UniProtKB/TrEMBL annotation, chains A, B:
<comment type="similarity">
    <text>Belongs to the RNA methyltransferase RsmE family.</text>
</comment>
<protein>
    <recommendedName>
        <fullName>Ribosomal RNA small subunit methyltransferase E</fullName>
        <ecNumber>2.1.1.193</ecNumber>
    </recommendedName>
</protein>
<dbReference type="GO" id="GO:0070475">
    <property type="term" value="P:rRNA base methylation"/>
</dbReference>
<keyword id="KW-0949">S-adenosyl-L-methionine</keyword>
<feature type="domain" description="Ribosomal RNA small subunit methyltransferase E PUA-like">
    <location>
        <begin position="19"/>
        <end position="62"/>
    </location>
</feature>
<dbReference type="InterPro" id="IPR015947">
    <property type="entry name" value="PUA-like_sf"/>
</dbReference>
<dbReference type="InterPro" id="IPR046886">
    <property type="entry name" value="RsmE_MTase_dom"/>
</dbReference>
<keyword id="KW-0698">rRNA processing</keyword>
<keyword id="KW-0963">Cytoplasm</keyword>
<dbReference type="GO" id="GO:0070042">
    <property type="term" value="F:rRNA (uridine-N3-)-methyltransferase activity"/>
</dbReference>
<comment type="function">
    <text>Specifically methylates the N3 position of the uracil ring of uridine 1498 (m3U1498) in 16S rRNA. Acts on the fully assembled 30S ribosomal subunit.</text>
</comment>
<dbReference type="GO" id="GO:0005737">
    <property type="term" value="C:cytoplasm"/>
</dbReference>
<dbReference type="Pfam" id="PF20260">
    <property type="entry name" value="PUA_4"/>
</dbReference>
<dbReference type="Pfam" id="PF04452">
    <property type="entry name" value="Methyltrans_RNA"/>
</dbReference>
<dbReference type="InterPro" id="IPR006700">
    <property type="entry name" value="RsmE"/>
</dbReference>
<dbReference type="InterPro" id="IPR029028">
    <property type="entry name" value="Alpha/beta_knot_MTases"/>
</dbReference>
<dbReference type="InterPro" id="IPR046887">
    <property type="entry name" value="RsmE_PUA-like"/>
</dbReference>
Length: 249, 249
């Protein structure tokens, strides 16, 4: 049963879907009919089982009867932000899609010394709109209750302003030094929010790491194998989910 | 410093690299010179720091002086097999690459009732060669000590013959039922080997699950969000690495 995000607050009862994209998908692509059930998530992250009552083809409106769902939330109990150095278009899109599936709340892309790509200021807005759309679609598909926010930072140093409880850097040099316990130690303590920074293929420069460390970030290793820049955030998010959602402590 | 797999046993001292692909990469692509150092992994998974002593352009041979490396192994302390239903070409290739980066020892693709793709018998060999090549390249890049074996099974029922200590099915219906503790419970016990089965986008049929379960497989949930078919194995491998390589018990 598919799920859509609407921008309004839904109250139990009749609700009119005004989003033309949802109309297109429900009425034209999937050819739903009166009586079919879809799920809607409103601006308050509430999930509603919604039975189609009317399809107005002329005005592209769908009326549904909504009942609040008692399905448990699919959101992680900790707010997770991943911050990745800019990379090629397909990698950035891929990171956005997979991080959404894996439960990230915020997905940050930043410029750094060895970033594979740099975005000119006149393309940033267009790129961010596209990534935000990818996040929305992935959130709908993976049955999230929120759409992760995609953020662009002109410089890695803007991460210093981040205020998460736990601030980490996935640092290849730490992994090479055999650092293998800080992540597990950190996750064994209670936290409400975490951010982890991932460098480009060429790595974060040691100056950049030093600067982040002097602003409360801690460098961690993610195991003995070298992961590509896009694989490491997936590893991190999977581990967060396991620790907070599956691990029976 | 890049790494290559050779098929021979290396003894400390002089070694001649006869693999023409390695020659091409070292001498032509990267233009290494005498005195440069590369790493070689031999058929016994031993790593050798290898200093180039001669490059014979005519016969495409490279001679190196090898010294056994004392770098710790990058292999997981548990043998992990992932078994995925056949999917589109790019997904199958992607799973092979990422699973290699994440430490899988065997990567199995099988036909099942709802598989997105089926391979005709006359294309299997060619496809397997290509996947094995992807695994080799990813293993070199991520500094593995072995190349994961890629295996094709004509039918999901062939998994019944698998003899791993721990046999799991990532089953969407289990996740939907809120099952969230079996994986963590299982990983808290000692195991030498594990296999986990991942269904296609359409899921594994309940008949297929029942058959596997009657052969020692246990169904597990991997958290509350719906993951795409290619994302779930990455989640699993990341969790295995965390449990066995990072978690400070």
């Amino acid at each position: 049963m598919e799920q859509y995000f609407v921008k309004e607050t839904i109250k139990q009862g009749l609700f009119e879907i005004s989003d033309k994209e949802i109309y297109k998908h429900v009425a034209t692509v999937l050819r739903h009919r009166i009586g079919d059930v879809i799920y809607l998530v409103d601006e308050n992250s509430e999930l509603f089982e919604s039975t189609i009552k009317n399809i107005d083809a002329e005005n592209k409106l769908i009326s549904v009867e909504t009942v609040k769902s008692d399905k448990p939330s699919t959101e992680m109990p900790i707010d997770v932000t991943i911050a990745c150095s800019l990379s090629k278009k397909d990698k950035v899109e891929w990171i956005t899609q997979k991080s959404t599936e894996l439960g990230a709340k915020r997905i940050v892309f930043f410029n750094s010394k060895y970033s594979i790509m740099h975005w000119k200021s006149n393309v940033v807005e267009k790129k961010m709109l596209r990534l935000q759309e990818i996040a929305k679609n992935a959130a709908q598909q993976s049955k999230r209750r929120i759409i992760p926010e995609v953020i662009y930072l002109k410089d890695i140093s803007e991460l210093n302003k981040f205020t998460e409880d736990l601030k980490l850097i996935a640092y290849e040099e730490s992994a090479k030094d055999g650092e293998s316990s800080i992540l597990a130690q950190s996750l064994n303590k209670p936290h409400n929010s975490v951010v982890c920074v991932f460098g480009p293929e060429g790595g974060i420069s040691s100056d950049e790491v030093t600067d982040l460390e002097s602003n409360g970030f801690v460098s961690i290793g993610l195991g003995p194998r070298i992961m590509r820049a896009e694989t490491a955030p997936m590893y991190f998010l999977s581990v967060l989910s396991y620790s907070y959602e599956l691990n029976s402590k």
